[in-house]
Amino acid sequence: MPLILVTNDDGFFSPGIAALADALRPLGDVIVVAPQTEASAVGHALTLRRPLRLEQERPNVYSVDGTPTDCVNIAIDKLLKQRPDIVVSGINKGLNIGDDVTYSGTVAGALEGALLGYQALAISLDAKSAGEVDFGPAAQMAASLAAALLERPLPGRTFLNVNVPRGEIKGVRVTVQAKRNHITKVAQRTDPRHRPYFWIEEAQDDWESDPRSDHQAIVDKFVSVTPIQPDLTDHSALDLVDALMRNARVAPSR
Question: Kindly report the CA angle at 230 between 141 and 16, in degrees rounded to 5?
């Protein structure tokens, strides 16, 4: 039976991770290793300045007082008796699309799996409502894609970022990351001792129009499936930077 490592950034207690684990169990043995507390928007952070603790919460469910990246590393290096066949991160309560994937702890969990050499996917659900969230469709989508990856693996260091719309789902699209404006909005307030403190808030999102993008897929009620890899090099700019360095009389070595 395949071994499936499940993590997230919402915490081991999240209903999203429970739904995901349940949907994946028909595919193999599922082990959940997730943050002890919510770790949203921590990105690909790795804890290096304090010790980490691993606790068993219930059978096959463990918590780590750290980030999703910490969870994946501790699970693979210290907990699991064999290497996982796939790492699945989610289900996040909220989208992780476009440029925002760089902030996402959910995406980072899958990224760490891919960097360590495993098949991986991250899955998120558009869940802005304050009411009860139905994770069922996203969980089934994750299980279907995980089964496909186990059968036909992606190239090394490539993983899937999957986003599921609310309500009606018209189909599935293979997408690229959307681009949006980045406007910083920071609220400043004063505490009872008259000292200022700050909240970083969501700013207006103006997305660039692109029919291929993950954002447009969600708008059109399609599941977005984006292949991602960790190489941030802008290959199209290499010649431009080469010329720039020569103009600056800092000739690159050949």
Answer: 30
Dist. CA 91–CA 82, nearest whole Å: 24
Q: Give the chain's count of helices (H) and strands (E).
A: 6, 11
Spell out the CATH class of 3-178+209-247: alpha beta
Which of 127, 199, 196 shows the shortest CA–CA distance to 163?
127
Return the domain boundaries, the chain: 3-178+209-247
Angle at 32 between CA 13 and CA 141, to 5 degrees: 90
Cis-peptide into 228, omega within 30 deg: no
**Ramachandran angles phi, psi of 182, nearest 5°:** -125, 100
pTM: 0.93
pLDDT per residue as tens digits for the range 67-122: 999 999 999 999 999 999 999 999 999 999 999 999 999 999 999 999 999 999 99
| Helix locations, the chain, DSSP H | 15-24, 68-74, 105-115, 136-151, 214-219, 238-247
Bridge partners of 3?
29
In the block, tokens 């463990």 appear at 62
